[in-house]
Amino acid sequence: MSVVIPVVPRIVAGRIAHCESCGVRARSVCANLPEGDLMRLASISTVRQCGPGEVIMMEGEPAASYHNITSGFVRLHKSLPDGREQVTGFARPGDFLGLASEDNYGVTATAIGPVTLCRFPRDRFRTLMHALPTLEDRLLGVASHELVIAQERMLLLGRKTARERVASFLLDLAPPCGETGVILLPMTRTDIADYLGLTIETVSRTLSAFRREKRIDMKVPNQLVLVDRNGLSRIAQASAL
Amino acid sequence: MSVVIPVVPRIVAGRIAHCESCGVRARSVCANLPEGDLMRLASISTVRQCGPGEVIMMEGEPAASYHNITSGFVRLHKSLPDGREQVTGFARPGDFLGLASEDNYGVTATAIGPVTLCRFPRDRFRTLMHALPTLEDRLLGVASHELVIAQERMLLLGRKTARERVASFLLDLAPPCGETGVILLPMTRTDIADYLGLTIETVSRTLSAFRREKRIDMKVPNQLVLVDRNGLSRIAQASAL
DNA sequence: CGACGCATTGATCGCGCTCAAATGTCGTGG
DNA sequence: CCACGACATTTGAGCGCGATCAATGCGTCG
Predict the structure, then answer these.
(1) Does the distance separating the beta carbons of B147 and A240 come in below 8 Å?
(2) Interatomic separation, CA of residue B58 and C1' of nucleotide C6, rounded (Å)
(3) Do A144 and B86 touch (CB under 8 A)?
(4) A-B interface: how many C-beta pairs under 8 angstroms?
(5) Is B75:B107 a contact under the CB 8 Å cutoff?
(6) What number does CATH give the domain B161-236?
(7) Quick check: B61 CB within 7 A of strand D?
(8) What is the largest CA-CA distance in chain A?
(9) Protein B162 CA to nucleic acid C14 C1', in Å?
């Protein structure tokens, strides 16, 4: 995470994607596609690279492309005229961008660190989608899953306390279960605050509190270990996600 | 709204739906289906009736059915162990219920007032969906639209003030534009508060303030008129919805 | 070494919540 | 038609959580 891409075989933007050898295919919408279909998808896709902070797509602008993340992390967000921001989600390698769009994009997508994407022109992608039931079915599955997550976040934003929000966030980041591995935070405190509907100060104070209470261990700001997962789970009012 | 169903030709629950004459078809997922496909859909659907407060589907339970609302209003909500509630949305006639489900329902759906539904057994519906591209495409469209709305609501819940939330809510309810028609609120103050992430007191106070400021007119609690739509729109920090 | 950006910590403020009471609405039965 | 009770809504008083304002710490880069 916060992956510095090995700059050795620097991919030229615009080149056709190599789906067969793509490392994130299993996690992506292109998973399970018959080989022929995969090639048709590859034929309309190009590689796009973005640097840190670069805008991949902009809220309100015509939805010209769909994207699939092949490396790096992306922040999805909306903002109010006066600058207040809400991060609606973070996207990881394998995630699909553009589902939540009508004719115009519904959110802005900004690269956190360097990001590599598979770009699909909207019209050609939609045509192909209609021709490939497996693909459309997969997209529906992804959209349904996103909806479930969105509803869970409405509960968090509408009804949870600051402690509950931060605890929920940490648990969502944590690997599925059991593991007491290190969690790397690719995003800043500002991103986390805007994701949880809090301020950076409250996020920072809450993390400090969890550290004092020996629930987490955090030697550097963007790297932490869940020490007392059960305690956090209790605080988070963990639901059935 | 809060429609008292004319009890004259009381439909017997369980009977096969009459899609051809269905009044909400144009607004539903079954719109635009070729006639033959519509009949196949009708053949797996049954009519279900629910009384006020009745639970249509329950968060966390196995997702056995999908539903389409033919009349009445439905509250979609999630709750925390201690009873705090978040209404994730209100559903109207023509809306589809169950999209935001994995194997288990992601939210609870409760009837506000009497409700009539078209019920589709999950497995049979999914089989049919895979056979009818028009249907699956339509579902993907609905899911995408729901996602856009969900993200708008995250912005509201995470970043808007009480005044902005209530103003946004009123504008969302209002007919598309121009009209200064009467808005009927089928839901209670508690529902509105749980929808906006506020308390009933704050909702009530804010509505009273809008009335004092001559932005709305409200003679009875569940019926109001937008007097100053532009003012409300300014307050709502209206975005590109 | 200083400048910058990000995170942490402290002090204080205010929006929206909580607790409490009054008022309004509506259905029911005399 | 009115009296009554149950329940929803409105209004008031005071408080507390999280925001705001401000200062300090800390790591990175020129």
Answers:
(1) no
(2) 44
(3) no
(4) 138
(5) no
(6) 1.10.10.10
(7) no
(8) 56
(9) 14
Radius of gyration of chain B, Cα coordinates, nearest whole angstrom: 19
**pLDDT (tens digit, 9 = 90+) per residue, A73-125?**
999 999 999 999 999 999 999 999 999 999 999 999 999 999 999 999 999 99
Domains of chain A, by residue range, sit at 19-149, 160-236
> What is the CATH T-level fold of the domain A160-236, as seen in this structure?
Arc Repressor Mutant, subunit A (1.10.10)
Contact B139 A137 (CB under 8 A): no
Strand locations in A80-227 (E): 85-91, 96-97, 108-121, 182-184, 216-220, 223-226
Q: Pairing state of beta strands A223-226 and A96-97?
A: unpaired
The answer to whether the beta carbon of residue B208 comes closer than 7 angstroms to any atom of strand C is: no
- Using CB atoms, which residue from A133, A151, A160 is nearest to B107? A151
Topology match between the domains A19-149 and A160-236: no
Determine the CATH number of domain B19-157.
Answer: 2.60.120.10
Task: Among A88, A136, A140, select the one facing B151 at the smallest CB separation.
Answer: A88
Q: Do B147 and A145 touch (CB under 8 A)?
A: no
**Global pTM?**
0.93
- State whether the beta carbon of A162 lies below 7 angstroms from any atom of strand D: yes
CA distance A228 to A162: 18
Which residue, chain included where needed, has tokens 């903002």? A79
Per-residue pLDDT of chain B (241 residues; tens, 9 = 90+): 333 333 333 344 556 667 888 889 999 998 888 888 999 999 999 999 999 999 999 999 999 999 999 999 999 999 999 999 999 999 999 999 999 999 999 999 999 999 999 999 999 999 999 999 999 999 999 999 999 999 999 999 999 999 999 999 999 998 765 566 789 999 999 999 999 999 999 999 999 999 999 999 998 988 999 999 999 999 998 764 4
Sequence-distant (≥ 6) Cβ neighbours of residue A96 within 8 angstroms: A28, A29, A66, A67, A68, A69, A139, A142
- The verdict on domain A19-149 having CATH code 2.60.120.10 is yes
Residues 173-212 of B with CB under 7 A from strand D: 188-190, 200-201, 203-205, 207-208
Write the residue in A85, A136, A147 that is nearest to B137 by C-beta: A136
